[in-house]
């Protein structure tokens, strides 16, 4: 474990990551739009693919739990445990993304069959979830970048926005899954 004040990336050699963060985030968003809405589903994927949405919901719930635990730990001044929880949340979100891409590689879009009052509620939650997830990716990367550089003043400033957006994406991901399951 490195000493408290030591940074992972030296500021002189770090460069400016913002163009790369934005490019990576935009490429990921465009890839997902293509994968889910434009490319279409492949014929008959393996049977285990149908279990991935439940895994995705679990990974979102675990990421959200780690985010809350990390927030509590930094409020208590326990930086080391905060870092562990936040990196674990990042890991769960990364696993979610891999599972999500795998599912949609085989399945494509999942239509919502619900009717009545639940339909506009579902789509409001889904659209806000999608928009916030697009915003969250570069914010998460920027927050992580600032922490690895030891730029904690800026890290705190962006984390104040990143935390609630990332948590919202995690919670609404579970809600979207639960609503789809309830009406399918």
Give the low-pLDDT segments: none
Q: N-to-C SSE series?
A: HHHHHH
Class derived from helix and strand content: mainly alpha
Helix content: over 70%
Could you say what the CATH topology is called? Four Helix Bundle (Hemerythrin (Met), subunit A)
Rounded to an integer, what's the Rg over CA atoms? 18 Å
Q: Residue-averaged pLDDT, rounded?
A: 90
Q: Can you walk through the features of this model?
A:
There is one protein chain. With 184 residues, the protein is an all-alpha fold. It has a single domain (46-183), classed as Cytochrome c oxidase, subunit III, four-helix bundle (Four Helix Bundle (Hemerythrin (Met), subunit A), Up-down Bundle). Helices cover 77% and strands 0% of the residues. Helix 2 packs antiparallel against helix 5. It is globular and about 50 Å long.
